[in-house]
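Quick illustration for those who missed Monday's session on complexes.
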Amino acid sequence: MESPFKGDILKGKVALITGGASGIGFEISTQFGKHGASVALMGRRKQVLDSAVSVLKSLGIPAVAFEGDVRKQEDATRVVQSTFQHFGKIDILVNAAAGNFLVSAEDLSPNGFRTVLDIDSVGTFTMCHEALKYLKKGGQGRNSSTGGAIINISATLHYTANWYQVHVSAAKAAVDATTRNLALEWGTDHDIRVNGIAPGPISGTPGMSKLAPDEVTSKDREERPLYKLGEKWDIAMAALYLVSDAGKFVNGDTLIVDGGLWLSQPRHISKEAVKQVSRSIEKKSRVAPVGVPKSKL
Ligand code: COA
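Prediction with coenzyme A bound:
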């Protein structure tokens, strides 16, 4: 789909995107590039990184990739430094790297729980922390008078509770808390805007194939109003809005991009039945028992 934004809204910007070579991260990389940014991708798989960079370059986007695992402090330091050395500055950090699998809490080992927190929560903080000296107002390589922007990819699972996702719910709750706290501290001290995006189910992503395999969820989908699959494009457009000047007054927010799904509950009673039943119940409730004053309504 064509972007509704002008093609130069990120002109001259440099973005580092973890998990930027696949899924939602790759679409964000692509759209940032199409809107004028140079992009650096971080990921664990060389082959995936290489092919992502060649696609981006074929679109005329200045792109580079660095192998690294956000769980390793030394990788985070090296990749952030390499991005700076390659492009001369960093304006935007997107934390899109994440880990996930479906498992009941009973069957999840503490190490499995920790692994996802290490990737999503600690990894996000580590990357933010490493990038701070480049993103902050007056930071290394910055010739502008403003700070940069961070986006943390989150989820909606933890707003209530979700089956077989205790590890990810806990991890994303920590990510949202990190988003808000950094927005406060770094917004105040360094003019950096820190926001999140909470995607709903997005087609063609590793998350979708891992978490919502057809054989498991087809019945759920039928029973959940507002269940629609989003596109990676939807998330990339939200990201563009948040990091561009269009979102310059947005800080500390996590934008839910799920078509309203997280609000969804099964409809237990039809609209017609509500019409019928509600009136008669109301009527009965107004017939006051003996000794009770009548309603004046
Ligand atoms: N069910 C239950 N436990 C699982 C599991 C599953 N499907 N997959 C992994 N684990 C557990 C392992 O058993 C291990 O715990 P243990 O040591 O107590 O046995 C722990 O998680 C770490 O697993 P390991 O395979 O060593 O981790 P890894 O570092 O190689 O991989 C994952 C990390 C598991 C998060 C892997 O899925 C991954 O790399 N994901 C990235 C991509 C992704 O998930 N994308 C979707 C984003 S929404």
